Structures are given as structure tokens and as C-alpha cells.
Amino acid sequence: MSTSQMKRLSALLAFALLSLPAVSSAQTYFRFPASQLADQCGNGGCTVSAYKDYGGRDYACGGVRYAGHTGTDYALVGGFSKMDYGVWAMNAASGTIESAVDGYFDRCTYWDQSNPYNACGLYTANYIIMRHADGTKTKYWHLKKYTQQFAVGTYLTCAYWIALVGSSGASTGPHLHFEYWVPGYGTDDPYGGSCGTPYTRWTSQGAYRGLPGIACQ
Ligand SMILES: [Zn+2]
């Protein structure tokens, strides 16, 4: 190989190395899954009422969790009056609506554990599940009855108003249960911290007990 060929090759290699992304571009990152407008979750309208449970602690080694909780609960500070006003859940990233359930009673104040098919039981929440490009899924639970805006199979870019937050299923008050699912693993936590996973799946995780940022990936 001549010197000029060597130079061209090393230039090509340098370009190839510089072109490698820091993280796999296939990984999906999420924005906060509800509206942050001033009359919605903005101005303290929503609060974290429970994180994913890591056997008694949350991702940051705090106690904002309850036993067996698999997602994050974002509660409406104004309760049912705020729910009646209407607060929009939003898809946290681009993806396809994979499945959805609607039509169940949406003013639950307790979890009916006598039968999961009863109103306010485990299987009677209105919900949407979205599938993202990297195969991960996000789940939006306890939605208000008959407020879903898109049919199953619809592809949405990030941050559409998909349904109103409600209190259907096993729910003690109006809140959005947001859950993150990974193929081959199962339910995971989008938050990263010293008592959870070391990485975050939010575009901007935000402070503990604060809300994640609204920038789309
Ligand atoms: Zn929950």
C-alpha cells in the first residue's frame, strides 16, 4: 500500500470511528407521558405518587412506592374535578398503538380485589399499549372512559394527546400509571438511579419527585 493509500484509509477509518453514535441509535427514549401545559400537569398539576417498587425502595432508594408496583403513577393534584376538566395523557415516543381497552367505569376510589373483572378490579382499566421502533412498549393505564383518540394500529409520532387521564380499574383516584416494557426482559423502569437501573430511558429524567422533561427523542 502506498503512502497516499494509507492516508486515505486512515482518514476513512477516522471518519468511521467519529460516525459511531455514543449510544445505539435504535434505543427509544421517552418524554413525560402527559401534557405539561399550564392547565394540565404544568404548575404542579400532577405529582409522582408512586414509583416502581424495588422490594421496598424506589429507584433512588426512597420510599415513594408500594409493594409490587410495576410502573410510575402520576396523580392529578385536583382529583376528580381536575379529571372532569380533562388532563391529556400523551405518547412518550413515536410508535404504533398495539392494543387498547375502553368502556369501563372510570371513577374508582379503591381496588376491588374480590373479582378482577368487577368495576375497579385488576382487569377493568381502560388502557393503551404502544410499541416503539426498538421493540419496547409503553403502557398508559386507568384512562377516562371513551376519550381515546386513535384506533389500534395507528402510528403516531411522539407527543399526541392520546386519551384523558382517569381512574378506571384498580385505582384509588385519578392518575396515569405509566409503564415501560422491554422484549425478552419484561417490565422495567425508565428511571435510572442508585437503587434501580444505572441508565435512564427519559430524554430528561428530571429531579426526584419532579416530572421528566417534555423533549421528544
Ligand atoms: Zn400504578
TrEMBL record:
Residues 1-26 form the signal peptide. It comes from the Bacteria. PANTHER family: MUREIN HYDROLASE ACTIVATOR ENVC (PTHR21666:SF270), PEPTIDASE-RELATED (PTHR21666). InterPro entries: Cell_wall_metabolism_enzyme, Dup_hybrid_motif, M23ase_b-sheet_dom. This is Peptidase, M23/M37 family protein. Gene3D superfamilies: Glucose Permease (Domain IIA). Residues 122-182 form the M23ase beta-sheet core domain. GO terms for molecular function: metalloendopeptidase activity. Keywords: Signal. It holds the Pfam family Peptidase_M23.
